[in-house]
Design a protein that fits this description.
about 20% strand; about 525 residues; about 25% helix; single chain; six-stranded antiparallel β-sheet; Jelly Rolls; alpha/beta; 2 domains; TIM Barrel; 13 helices; globular; eight-stranded parallel beta barrel
């Protein structure tokens, strides 16, 4: 019998050596079983009912695999590094050697996580990054790059001249080194890993994370590539069916995919066919790395008959042109996003990178204070994140932001806009219910705009501007906040906010220079 889930929680095990938590409070401490299981304890007794565990540290496997025997054959030949060694000033090496000590001393982070998940009464999925591109620029010098990828450069996509929507200045140098799934050796390698994992752990499903990273063959070979990806998914479904039959239960296949069905097709993911053949059970519709409500939830729900649809919430959000550090997603944005997705027909909510709200240590762990922002995650929101009735009573923070980084295609984000904003914002709250007490709109520019004359309208009604120096809601940290001279605030009459599409217009007048608008936000307050 197939299970239904309310909340899928993706757990990147690379967080174990990076995050300071209640179980690892000092940079001088080493990884313990308590640290490994802390990330599961965080989400126990919440709406989370399935943990999607990424069993790798970027590309490096974290179990003693016979398919990729790094920890049995390669790791014993490496000399441990003292934390003062200069090589550990680099984040990837610091991550590796801290996990190296744990595993080489008998630790098993995947099994430790599996046991904690089961003890907490949740289901356990393996979530595998199908083409992770971290540290490709350090080929031959990073221990986080797996042996199969290093030993088989002939299995890579290679250089191509065709345009591709998932490229920008950060990602373009890396894509040629991604693995080419037209090669049967690549597909077979991952199937072997999944067969091994399904045999080692009494898992409840596997997720294929196609968002890390969404290029699986040369763009010019889209037809053949799409067929190869379907063959691959059929093979994974077969592996799960065989292991499920042995255990007397259905093992789920979840996929993490781009934000629209059209973009899925570009990547070679034939969602309609996979659904028709009942190859997949859950679809995690993802914006990429930065949170966005602009996911085409309705189209997925309307066109996929069998799979359950989950709107994905990211741990980082941004309304400026660049991230300027990691701006942590606030409780209000998490709750607004969940309410948004559920009201639009999503079957549940998914989380990605929630863990990295914790402070993350970069480089040498023995350098006091070298942390990348962070704070305790807003764990309280997980208690009711799947309850639309509860979320309806909460304050809301709607936003439309600038384009994502790394793999958000151009043309999907509605911003930037020059000198004038004219856009719609869909509101799913019942404003007439009376729980909201006030509303504020904020616009954000890429540079200073405090000396620019602006006029604003909301649903055709002129708005009054007021001076406000803080954020619309309390931020978790100060990282990534726009400067005060880059934002403008306007009061919005509550009786002009309606359920459904709302029109917002901002125009500059007599400007001494052009203004690049990069985001608009709307806050609905309850007190």
């Amino acid at each position: 019998m197939k299970k239904t889930y309310e909340c899928l929680y993706n757990h990147d095990m690379g967080s174990i050596p990076q995050c300071l938590t209640p179980a690892l409070t000092s940079c001088e401490q080493q990884i313990t079983r308590e640290q490994v299981q802390q990330f599961v304890r965080d989400v126990a007794d919440t709406n989370v009912d399935a943990v999607l565990c990424c069993p790798t540290m970027l590309r490096r496997v974290l179990w003693r695999s016979e398919i990729d025997p790094h920890w049995q054959k390669e790791a014993p030949l490496l000399a441990d590094r003292d934390d003062e060694h200069p090589i550990l000033a680099r984040g990837d090496q610091s991550m590796y050697y801290r996990m190296y000590r744990y595993i080489m001393n008998g630790g098993d982070p995947v099994r430790d996580t599996f046991e904690a998940v089961k003890e907490a009464g949740m289901d356990f999925f393996i979530s595998y990054r199908m083409n992770d591109w971290h540290y490709f620029e350090l080929e031959g010098d990073s221990l986080l790059l797996d042996t199969f990828w290093l030993e088989h450069p002939q299995y890579r996509v290679g250089e191509f001249s065709e345009s591709y929507p998932f490229l920008d200045d950060w990602s373009e140098p890396r894509v040629a080194k991604l693995e080419n799934y037209l090669r049967p050796e690549v597909r077979r390698h991952y199937c072997d890993l999944f067969n091994e994992l399904a045999g080692l752990y009494d898992l409840d499903g596997i997720e294929l994370d196609f968002m890390r990273s969404p290029l699986y063959f040369p763009p010019s070979q889209r037809e053949e590539g799409t067929q190869a990806m379907t063959d691959f998914v059929r093979s994974v479904r077969g592996i799960l069916d065989r292991h499920g039959a042995q255990r007397g239960k259905h093992l789920s296949l979840c996929v993490s995919v781009p934000s629209t069905l059209e973009l899925c097709s570009v990547v070679g993911l034939d969602m309609a066919l996979w659904d028709k053949e009942r190859l997949i059970d859950q679809v995690r519709v993802s914006p990429g790395y930065v949170a966005s409500f602009d996911l085409d939830i309705e189209d997925f729900c309307n066109k996929l008959e069998h799979a359950r649809i989950y709107g994905d919430l990211q741990g980082t959000w941004a309304v400026q042109k660049d991230i300027r550090g990691h701006r942590q997603t606030t409780p209000e944005i998490y709750e607004t996003g969940a309410f948004n997705f559920l009201k639009r027909g999503a079957d549940g909510i998914a989380f990605d990178n929630f863990t990295f709200t914790y402070p993350t240590v970069q480089g040498n762990w023995l350098k006091p204070g070298r942390t990348d922002g962070g704070c305790d995650p807003p764990l309280h929101i997980l208690k009711h994140i799947g309850d639309a009735d509860y979320l309806a009573t909460r304050p809301k923070h709607y936003f439309i932001g600038c384009r994502n980084i790394g793999w958000r295609p151009e043309g999907i984000g509605r911003f930037p806009m020059m000198n004038r904003i004219k856009t719609t914002m869909a509101i799913y709250d019942d404003i007439s219910s009376g729980q909201f007490t006030s509303a504020v709109a904020r616009v954000v520019s890429g540079d200073r705009c405090d000396d620019i004359k602006m006029e604003a309208q909301f649903n055709g009604v002129a708005l009054s501007e007021f001076d406000h120096r803080g954020e619309l809601f309390e931020p978790l940290t100060d990282d990534g906040l726009p400067n005060t001279d880059e934002v403008r605030h306007f009061r919005v009459p509550l009786d002009k906010v309606k359920t459904g599409d709302n029109t917002l217009c901002i125009e500059t007048r007599d400007t001494p220079r052009s203004v690049e608008f990069i985001a608009v936000e709307l806050a609905l307050y309850v007190d």
